[in-house]
Design brief:
Largest sheet: none
Distance between the termini: 69 Å
Order of helices and strands: HHHHHHHHH
Number of helices: 9
Helix content: over 70%
Number of strands: 0
Low-confidence stretches: 1-38
Mean pLDDT: 81
Radius of gyration: 20 Å
Strand content: under 5%
Length: 168
């Protein structure tokens, strides 16, 4: 195979990975809600473990900040957050660097094996687990947990108890 054909094949291989990265923002939202892949094979499990094991607390904080800034674009919450385009760009660059480091250095072999043996969706599934781990750290923060628990003061517990009593 000549150099031009090898280069074209290499570019096509690299570009075929890119749709998975376009889905990562969507994976972030799903994972934050606790969604998990319907089926993860052993190679995806290894990739997921590697991604989590090679992500520092600083990396997880950057990932959570990026998810927050990205989801803050939604019209239902946009007025609540003030994230400048420059901040969003910097967060995106930081997370892109994280993804790149994880896939090309820290977890290169598990990434290659998972993609080869279980398909392209392994990238999304693996990062879904990473996002779940990062978001769990956010929600388990005492201040955040307290804020989330504040809804309890506004619940009509008698109505809820009555609804449970009516259940079969």
């Amino acid at each position: 195979m000549d150099a031009a054909v090898r280069k074209e094949a290499s570019v096509k291989t690299r570009l075929s990975v890119m749709p998975a990265f376009g889905a990562l923002a969507f994976i972030g939202v799903l994972a934050a809600g606790g969604a998990t892949p319907a089926h993860a094979g052993p190679y995806t499990d290894e990739l997921s473990k590697c991604l989590v094991d090679h992500t520092t607390e600083q990396d997880k904080a950057a990932l959570v900040r990026w998810i927050f800034a990205s989801t803050a674009q939604h019209p239902a919450v946009a007025e609540l957050a003030q994230v400048t385009p420059e901040q969003r760009t910097e967060m995106s660059k930081t997370v892109a660097g994280l993804f790149e480091r994880l896939l090309t250095q820290d977890c290169r072999a598990p990434f290659r094996d998972a993609r080869k043996n279980e398909g392209q969706e392994t990238v999304s599934a693996g990062f879904g687990v990473l996002v779940q781990t990062a978001m769990r750290g956010l929600i388990e923060n005492a201040t955040v947990s307290s804020a989330l628990a504040s809804v309890d003061a506004h619940l009509d517990k008698q109505k809820i108890a009555a609804a449970m009593a009516d259940s079969p």
